[in-house]
Design goal:
The protein is of the alpha/beta class and 129 residues long. 37% of the residues lie in helices and 21% in strands. Helix 1 (16-29) packs parallel to helix 2 (60-71). The protein is globular, with a radius of gyration of 14 Å.
């Protein structure tokens, strides 16, 4: 079965990202496929390369990176929600005249069309808000 995940909660202020990550590992362990993860609303903060949680806490961004590295899971970030919250890639920072950026590969800024495509490709689409 093919799953898609929508993560709408911010790391460390919502249980949604951690629950989504645990769910992702559980479905992969059971032999299912994870078509991708789409970060939306405050969930875009999961992609920030500037997060620096204490060493004794789970680094959610690093955990998402590991999921991508080991299972080739796409990590899409809503560009409108990200820009609104001060998260941007290097190309977006240049385009908007900003001096810094905090979203790097494999997180990718995409539009809502990518969310619709993920929903279409998925047998099950689960929202974590």
């Amino acid at each position: 079965m093919q799953y898609g995940l929508l993560v709408m909660g911010a790391p460390y202020s919502s249980p949604a990202p951690h629950s989504a990550l645990r769910f992702a590992h559980a479905i992969i362990t059971r032999g299912h496929q994870l078509a991708g993860v789409f970060f939306y609303h405050d969930g875009v903060h999961n992609a920030s390369s500037l997060m620096a949680p204490p060493q004794d806490e789970l680094n959610l961004r690093e955990a998402w990176l590991e999921l991508h590295q080991y299972h080739d899971v796409a990590l899409d970030v809503c560009i409108a929600a990200a820009l609104r919250r001060g998260l941007m890639s290097e190309s977006e920072a240049l385009r908007h005249g900003k001096q810094a950026f905090n979203i790097v590969s494999p997180f990718e800024l995409t539009g809502l069309g990518q969310l619709l495509e993920l929903q279409h490709r998925s047998d099950r689409f689960i929202t974590f808000a």
